[in-house]
Design brief:
Elements (H helix, E strand, L loop, with lengths): L5 H12 L3 E2 H8 L3 H13 L3 E4 L2 E4 L4 E4 L2 E4 L1 H49 L1
Length: about 120
């Protein structure tokens, strides 16, 4: 798997939820500029995580053709996204487990100190 950023995974997740989407809609959904989104899309295209279907559509109002290039996720992109979610879930589980054992050690260490303080006050 190539080193992808969180924004790249957001694009993959967005494309997984919809069948295909135009780059302007992707940029609007991510609240990023069209140039940044295009750079990310180019990277994902290079690694074959997404595919593009480019076609030109006649626009009645502009009296010409416009680029109606749409992007969709590939099987490799879907697998990469699933692997990312699995790795993220495992990392969160590991962190929670680590916190639990650290808290348990602190509690076990604090019990004798509390018992000693209580015994000190009971002797008086």
């Amino acid at each position: 798997m190539h080193q992808l950023s969180d924004a790249d995974f957001k694009i993959l997740a967005l494309l997984k939820n919809v069948k295909e989407m135009h780059k302007n809609n992707i940029a609007a959904s991510l609240k990023e500029s069209a140039e940044i989104t295009q750079a990310r899309l180019d990277l994902l295209l290079e690694y074959n995580y997404i595919e593009s279907s480019s076609k030109f559509v006649e626009d009645k109002y502009l009296s010409g053709f416009i680029d109606a290039e749409k992007y969709s996720i590939t099987d490799l992109g879907s697998k990469t996204l699933e692997d990312f979610y699995t790795a993220t879930k495992q990392t969160k589980t590991k962190i929670q487990e680590d916190r639990f054992w650290k808290l348990t050690a602190i509690i076990i260490s604090a019990i004798p100190v509390l018992l000693a303080i209580i015994a000190m006050f009971l002797k008086k």
